[in-house]
Amino acid sequence: MKKQSTNRQYNFPDADLYLQCLERIKYANRDREQFEQYGYTLQRLKQFKAMCDKFGDLPDDEELLGDQMVTTEKKYAAAENLKSAIRSLMTRVAIKYSNRSGRYRKFGTAKMGDMTDAQLIFCGRRVVRVARQQLDFLAETGVNENVIRRVAEATRQFEKSVNIQQDKVADRDISVERRVEKGNKLYEELITLCNIGKDIWAEKDPVRYENYCIYESNNEQKKARKAKQENA
To answer: What is the pLDDT of residues 46-64, one digit of tens each?
Structure first.
């Protein structure tokens, strides 16, 4: 059964979550005595800080996307190299056979520009196989083992680049999933800490109560700041 993707429990950027956690940890340290009365110990606060540090060290999606784009660019370059090697061989084949002949079509290189990655890999392998089968007939046009080997090596390099690119896509998916899971745990702990902080100061100090209010978006933060300024 396919694992269901984890949904983010918060609707603001990870960087904002990280900074909000650090800010609330600072307030909780200030109010440590009151937090102890709720069983929220200094040890738990240190564990929360450690969670923040680990979360902050995780690669973000832009970094992972950049890595994926690099491997994709290398895959495109390898594809063009393979197509060039195939075209060079097929130019020689066309000298010997009409491009409408069965011997030519046996190479299966028609519409090479429209092939998927998998189709292009199979095309490269087929060209190598068929060229070796007809080597005696094609030798006079300059087709030799070196020409065939160039296609074989280009096919191998392209297949390798495809696998690397697919691995990077999978790595990105896994990293995003892991980041969401850790972010949710961080957010849950933030909510717990803030609920305690608000309960401590609800009837005592509105400013300190406000220290523990979480705004779900930058827009809400702007509204809150504007309201404070208007009421000041």
So the answer is: 999 999 999 999 988 888 8
